[in-house]
Amino acid sequence: MKLNLLENNDMKKGNKSYKIIVDTNIWISFLIGKNLKGLQYQLDSKFIKIITCNEQLLELSEVFKKPKINKYFSEEQIVEFFELLEESSVNFAISSSTNLCRDPKDNYLISLAIDSQADFLITGDKDLLELIKVGGTTILKYSDFDKIGKILEL
C-alpha cells in the first residue's frame, strides 16, 4: 500500500513547525552513525519540535546500558546526549493509555503521539510502522521522513 505522505494540506512549505517523535531505535542508529546524515540537519531546523517523555528517557537510559550499545559510547557522550536532548526537546507528560501496538512496550509512543498531537513518529519498528497513522500522527520510517523533509525544505 502506498501512502500519500503529503495528503494533509497543512503539510506544505511555510511557517508551520512540525512536532516529531524520534523512536529510541532511530536515536541509537543516528548516534552510532548508521546512514541518517540528514537527521542532524532536520533536528536543527527551526520548523522541527522534538517531542519526548519520561518513559522514552528511561528506555534510552536502559538501552545505553546494554553491552552491544554501550561499547559505542563513553559515559561522557551518553551524558552529553541526554543534556542535548533535554535542551532541544519538549518533555511531554503522557496522560492517556493505549493498547494499539502489538508490542505493549511501544504503546507509550502511541500515547505520546496522541497526547502531544505530534505530526510524525519516526521509527524503524515494524509493529509501529504497520499502524501507519494514529490520530493526526503519521508513523513512518526515517527514509520517508527524510523525503518529506526535502520536499518541505525542513
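(ticket continues) Second input and output from the same batch:
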Amino acid sequence: MGLGSTTKKIQLLADSAEKMYHRLNEVREQVETTQHTVDETGDRVRHLESEIVEQRAILEAIAGELDIDLAAVTADAHIPEAETATSESDADHSDEDAATDAGGDDGAADAETDSDGVADDGDGGADDGDGVVVDN
C-alpha cells in the first residue's frame, strides 16, 4: 500500500526539521553573542576615545604651562614616519632606474619624466606614452 514508505519520508522530514531547528537556535545564539560583543567593543572604544580627549587636554595644559609648541612636537613626531615613507619610495624608484639602466644604455641623454609619468625626450614634442611623438 505504500503507507510504510510515506511514514519513513515523514519521519525523515521531521528529523531534518528538528536538526534545522537546533541549528537555527545555535546560529541565533551566535548572533546574539556577536551582537553583545560588538556592543561591548563599541562601549570600550567610546570610553577610550573620551580618555584620549581628556589626556590631550591635560597635555595641552601642561605644554601651555611649560611654553612648549605642540605643533612643533607633533611635526617632529611625524618626521620619522615621513622619512620612512620617502626612503621606501626612493628605493622603489632606484630599483626602477637600475632596471632601466640595465636594459642597455646607448649613451644618449636620459629621458626626463613628466608629472604624468610619461617620458619626455626633450624635443618639445608631445609624447602620450605610446611611443609616438607629436610635434606641437
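Agent notes: The chain has a mean pLDDT of 77. The first strand starts at residue 112 and ends at 113. Closing as not reproducible unless the customer responds.
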